[in-house]
Each structure stands twice: as structure tokens, then as C-alpha cells.
């Protein structure tokens, strides 16, 4: 098999196909076999697994995945990479490339067609400019996904993993932890990519829950409350929830918070998922 982590090979094949990196698509190809191994080990893969990869690039991780699992479906948005992938993955019969935008493709149909609705694992080196929409798309659709192991910008990983009270804790922390249990695998320097990005990276795994971590009566209301609480971090909970799009009266919010034993003077970044759920479930 071709050595897709070799900088020399990567330069040769992209030159052969006249490929140019797209800043708009956030293309940074992994060229370090040690980091590649850490991603695969962190994903906790088994030979019978089905894997969805997002953004295979020239197929570096795709090729490595094919050796460890039963089947890989890789979704690539850049049609200029398709002929490169055809060449680099010609010795991998258990891989199928799907051309399209992960945010627009019918993922439920794709997973059903290729994996017969069994729970699969997502493994990806995500484009940093669109990391959050992709993650939330995977989680909110409640697809048959067991885990999501991804390389993302370091500060985004820290926000997903953050606990209440810290500076990184915010709406993304709540959303990710509502649907999954995140764990940091390792940090990654820019030098392992071609071209190197301007930021550090982190490999993080999200173990997707079969049921959300907290029970809420109205999921849309729950996330509206979360968004309002973090909309202006300096505001107290009372002021944050009685302004903006919620349309709730201050006296009503004060009564709700008092009834459930949450101080109106607290700020959103101090609330746990359970406390956000209590507030949501008591607004009628």
C-alpha cells in the first residue's frame, strides 16, 4: 500500500493530479503516522465496525481505517480529490467514497443503505471552519452512531469538554454533553499537517448516549434557555432569561428560579445540565 503519511508522496501525488489546497474548505492533510495511530487507537475500533469518515483528503486515515474495520464510507466535498482517492485507495475494497456536503446529504439513508442501521463509529479530521455545525448535525439527528472521534481545533475541543464554572464552558459544552460523554485523547501540534494550520489541534472522542443525559419536556425550549443564558455572559440568570427571544417576564422567571432553588443572581456558566433541565421543565 502507498505511504500516505509521507510528505514526499503527498507532494508527488497532488502535483501529479494538479491539486491545490483550498483555504475555503480548510484542507490540512495529516502526514504523521504516530498521530494517525493515536486517532485510531482513541476511536477504540473493532474488526466488525462500520466507520463513517468525513473529509478523507487524499485518503490517509481512510486507508488506515480499512485495515482495522469491516467497512468505511468516506464523504468528500471536494470533487478535485476524487481522482486522487481513486488512486490512493485502489487496494482497499472495503471503502466507498460518497461525494457531497455532509450537512446536506441524507445521512440516515446513507447509513441505512451501507450499514443496515447498525450503530457505527465516526472518525474524522474535520475542517476547522465548520466543526461545530458538523458535530451538532450528527448529534441532533440522533443517528445510529456509537462514537465520534475527531481531530478539531484545540479551543473547540476544550469547549466541548469543559465543566460548569470554567471560562471554556458555554452553549457548545451543554449541547455536546447533552448527547454524549466527551473525553480528550491528546493534543496535536500544527507541524503534523500539510500545510500546517495556524492553531493547535486536539483529538477528542464523543461517546454518544442512547438517551440524552437529562430528560427535558421541550428540547427546543431547553436549548433556547441555554442560548439565552450564555448570550451575554456577564448578565445574571434573571436578566439573561427575561430578555432576548424567550419573551418571558422577569417576575415569572424570578418565581420559577425561586421554586426550584436556583439563585437568580447566578450566571449561565455556573449551571449544570441538570439545572438547565430543571429550569426548562418548570417553564410552562
Q: Which structural category do the helix and sheet elements fall into?
A: alpha/beta
**What best-fitting shape do the alpha-carbon axes yield?**
elongated
CATH topology category name of the largest domain:
Rossmann fold
**What is the share of helical residues?**
25-40%
Please report which band the strand proportion falls in: under 5%, 5-15%, 15-25%, 25-35%, 35-45% or over 45%. Answer: 15-25%
Can I get a quick summary?
With 284 residues, the protein is α/β, with parallel strands linked by helices.
Description of the structure:
The protein is α/β, with parallel strands linked by helices. It folds into two domains: 7-208, Rossmann fold; 219-281, Orthogonal Bundle (Helicase, Ruva Protein, domain 3), CATH 1.10.8. The protein has twelve helices and nine strands. The strands form two sheets. It has a seven-stranded mixed beta sheet with strand order 4-3-2-5-6-9-7, with helices on both faces. A two-stranded antiparallel sheet has the order 1-8. Helix 6 links the parallel strand 5 (120-125) and strand 6 (145-153). Helix 6 runs parallel beside helix 8 and helix 9 crosses helix 12. The longest helix has 13 residues, at 219-231. The protein is elongated and about 70 Å long.
Tell me the layout of helices and strands.
Layout lengths: L6 H10 L12 E2 L2 H10 L7 E5 L5 H7 L4 E6 L5 H7 L6 E5 L7 H9 L4 E6 L5 H10 L4 E9 H8 L9 H9 E9 L4 E2 L6 E8 L10 H13 L5 H5 L8 H10 L13 H9 L3
Parallel strand pairs: 2-3, 2-5, 3-4, 5-6
Antiparallel strand pairs: 1-8, 6-9, 7-9
Helix pairs in contact: 6-8, 9-12
Amino acid at each position: 500500500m502507498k505511504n500516505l503519511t509521507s510528505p514526499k508522496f503527498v507532494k508527488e501525488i497532488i502535483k501529479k493530479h494538479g491539486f491545490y489546497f483550498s483555504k475555503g474548505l480548510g484542507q490540512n492533510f495529516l502526514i504523521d503516522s504516530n498521530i494517525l495511530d493515536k486517532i485510531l487507537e482513541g476511536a477504540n475500533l473493532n474488526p466488525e465496525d462500520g466507520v463513517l469518515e468525513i473529509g478523507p483528503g487524499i485518503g490517509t486515515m481512510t486507508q488506515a481505517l480499512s485495515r482495522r474495520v469491516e467497512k468505511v464510507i468516506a464523504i468528500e466535498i471536494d470533487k478535485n480529490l476524487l481522482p486522487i482517492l481513486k488512486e490512493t485507495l485502489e487496494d482497499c475494497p472495503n471503502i466507498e467514497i460518497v461525494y457531497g456536503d455532509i450537512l446536506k446529504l441524507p445521512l440516515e439513508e446513507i447509513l441505512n443503505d451501507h450499514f443496515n442501521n447498525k450503530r457505527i463509529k465516526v472518525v474524522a479530521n474535520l475542517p476547522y471552519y465548520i466543526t461545530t455545525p458538523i458535530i451538532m448535525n450528527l448529534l441532533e439527528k440522533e443517528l445510529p452512531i456509537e462514537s465520534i472521534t475527531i481531530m478539531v481545533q484545540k479551543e473547540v475541543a476544550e469547549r466541548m469538554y469543559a465543566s460548569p464554572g470554567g471560562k471554556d464552558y458555554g452553549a457548545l459544552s451543554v449541547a455536546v454533553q447533552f448527547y454524549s460523554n466527551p473525553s480528550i485523547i491528546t493534543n496535536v501540534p500544527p507541524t503534523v499537517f500539510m500545510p500546517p494550520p495556524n492553531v493547535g489541534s486536539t483529538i477528542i472522542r464523543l461517546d454518544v448516549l442512547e438517551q440524552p443525559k437529562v430528560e427535558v419536556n421541550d428540547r427546543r425550549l431547553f436549548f433556547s434557555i441555554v442560548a439565552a443564558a450564555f448570550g451575554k455572559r456577564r448578565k445574571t440568570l434573571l436578566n439573561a432569561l427575561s430578555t432576548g427571544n424567550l419573551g418571558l417576564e422577569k417576575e415569572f422567571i424570578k418565581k420559577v428560579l425561586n421554586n426550584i432553588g436556583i439563585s437568580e443572581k447566578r450566571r449561565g456558566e455556573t449551571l449544570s445540565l441538570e439545572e438547565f433541565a430543571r429550569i426548562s421543565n418548570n417553564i410552562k
